[in-house]
């Protein structure tokens, strides 16, 4: 962070900058010192903090459910087992109401998306300055800890779902059936095939973009508000930060739920005949 007493602009800019590693045209392989250097590194630069925290929360999810599988009891569940079983039943309800096909993938997919996004979103509850200050003391210039406030992460998940949609559409309907579905919908006439293709391809591509941008927009807006609150006097921080954090509990769970449900709905279409 610039200086011992950064201005409001410097503070906000610092907290919204990722720890980016890539090939800089002048500095070679290095970490970016600011947004301009990160931009100059181009498409193949990687946001190390986003990747690190995404992997960490993913490992937390795997460990928790493995722990549950090994320690589950047949009696009345309590504590952590009760909470995780509620999440498991919740994901089953999503599948029962939103998925009309048969697949062994959908259950694990819905559970993983909901829990992983929820864990990543939940990092927003940590004090906004905690990890940036720890990273600064370790000589690390930037540290953003909420992966879902980075569009690279949310769009990456969205396009991951998109690839699954295309793969299972072709596998279940055949390449010809999938192509015919794109070419003859919504108007079932050969003369309107070009129009149908443009319309259906746009709809298909918009799905992952809307998934990613919806999640990113909500998490990024929440992060900016937390940063703005932290700039207020000490007494005002607690007056505003605690109510906003409590409200954000709903936002965090809701965004994870929406992403999981829409992913299941989109996947359901890949298993259905039009």
From TrEMBL:
It is a multi-pass membrane protein. Gene3D superfamilies: ATP synthase, F0 complex, subunit A. Pfam families: ATP-synt_A (PF00119). Key component of the proton channel; it plays a direct role in the translocation of protons across the membrane. It is found in: Cell membrane; Membrane. The chain crosses the membrane at residues 51-69, 105-123, 153-170, 190-209, 215-238, 245-269. Keywords: ATP synthesis, Cell membrane, CF(0), Hydrogen ion transport, Ion transport, Membrane, Transmembrane, Transmembrane helix, Transport. Its main location: membrane. Belongs to the ATPase A chain family. This is ATP synthase subunit a. It comes from the Bacteria. The gene is atpB. CDD domains: ATP-synt_Fo_a_6. InterPro entries: ATP_syn_F0_a_bact/chloroplast (IPR045082), ATP_synth_F0_asu (IPR000568), ATP_synth_F0_asu_AS (IPR023011), F0_ATP_A_sf (IPR035908). The keyword Transport applies.
